[in-house]
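Researcher: Go.
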Amino acid sequence: MTDRDHPSLLHAFGVVLRQIALNPLIMSAVAGALSAALHIHLPVALDNMVVFLQSAAAPTALFVLGVTVPRDKREAFARRSCSNNKLSAMATHPEVYRALAGAC
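Model: Structure:
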């Protein structure tokens, strides 16, 4: 919602609904659902491009989130033990800080 004043609550809801309806993610999901429901097929060149983008979507999302998929079991074990070390450090760090603060 924007910071401008709205004449009524109904107008504010209208603005919000319009912003939701014009969101590109919502529009693309609706377009995809309609094309699937109506059995609309893309030309081969566009279909190949969409399949390429589809296969890159999950790894790109994981990269953006900072998650990597381990390549083998040794790497997975190293990541697990590293994350366990991070969890234990997160748990003990406040206790160490309290002990040092109490000593001063």
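Model: The chain is about 75% helix and 0% strand.
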